[in-house]
Q: What sequence folds into this?
């Protein structure tokens, strides 16, 4: 049996900073693995977008888990699962952790929003945070449910997103570590990384931080390494944005050109899709077993 939590922990120890790419499908996971990422982010935002829905708890745990299992079946990279609020209260978290660990997840991120959550990145998003004690109960529930002690429980505070300021974010992060969190994900929706960098400098606790530079793309790996205590960067929505950019462009050109006569040379040949689909293995099986 593989131990995805151990694989992720070892990778963090070896590199000092892991790069985790958002995925919404096994295909995008394969592409992330081939590109050289250390792990996969089973993003709620990306999966919601894949269904054409906003990221506000419309996607069920079952839908998210089904996709995560499909991803785990096609990639050997450790998966960091975005389980949003944990699908309810601390009891729902117990159920979620059991299911996600069985599905082969290396780590979960649970955020201190109230269910149903609303995407963090909307400028006018409604953000209601749980009381600290209630969220501590969810973190404790997650930690006591995991069977593999290397399975990582990452607590995410939305205090900066909710406009509660750095002192509240620090207070919450300390409380979540006290409850057992292995890492703290600190997020912001400001356009500049200043808020995140200030938090990271003020965070003197040895528990490492996770950042998601979606709104503040200038926060690159070299800037993150300078902070010293950030051990994971999650590229939160780059897969789905890249896919949308490519498909919008391609579909518009086909309509404008009245056919595919011009565009076909600008996209991968179908053989590349065969390769990603594992058609080579099917050919071997055919020659062995089909009579
Ligand atoms: C996600 O990718 O679902 C995230 C990151 O949670 S963000 O959308 O930036 O909140
Ligand atoms: Mg999310």
A:
């Amino acid at each position: 049996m593989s131990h995805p939590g151990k694989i992720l922990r070892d990778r963090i120890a070896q590199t000092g900073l892991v790069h985790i790419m958002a995925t919404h499908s096994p295909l995008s996971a394969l592409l992330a693995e081939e590109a050289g990422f250390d792990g996969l982010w089973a993003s709620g935002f990306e999966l919601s977008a894949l269904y054409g829905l906003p990221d506000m708890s419309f996607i069920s745990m079952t839908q998210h888990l089904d996709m995560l299992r499909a991803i785990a079946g096609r990639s050997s990279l450790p998966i960091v699962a975005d389980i949003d609020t944990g699908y309810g209260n601390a009891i729902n978290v117990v159920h979620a952790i059991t299911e996600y660990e069985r599905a082969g997840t290396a780590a979960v991120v649970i955020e201190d929003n109230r269910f149903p959550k609303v995407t963090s990145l909307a400028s006018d998003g409604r953000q209601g945070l749980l009381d600290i004690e209630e969220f501590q109960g969810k973190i404790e529930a997650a930690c006591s449910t995991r069977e593999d002690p290397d399975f990582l429980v990452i607590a995410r505070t939305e205090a900066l997103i909710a406009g509660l300021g750095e002192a509240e974010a620090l207070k919450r992060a300390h409380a979540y570590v006290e409850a057992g969190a292995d890492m703290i994900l600190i997020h912001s929706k400001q356009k500049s990384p200043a808020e995140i960098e200030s938090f990271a400098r003020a965070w003197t606790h040895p528990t490492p931080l996770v950042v998601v530079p979606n709104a503040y793309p200038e926060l690159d790996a070299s800037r993150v390494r300078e902070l010293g205590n950030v051990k994971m960067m999650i590229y939160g929505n780059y897969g789905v944005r890249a896919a949308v950019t490519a498909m919008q462009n391609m579909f518009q050109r086909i309509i404008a050109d009245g056919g595919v006569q011009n565009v076909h040379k600008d996209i991968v040949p179908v053989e590349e899709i065969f390769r990603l689909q594992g058609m080579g293995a099917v050919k071997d099986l055919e020659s062995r077993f089909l009579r």
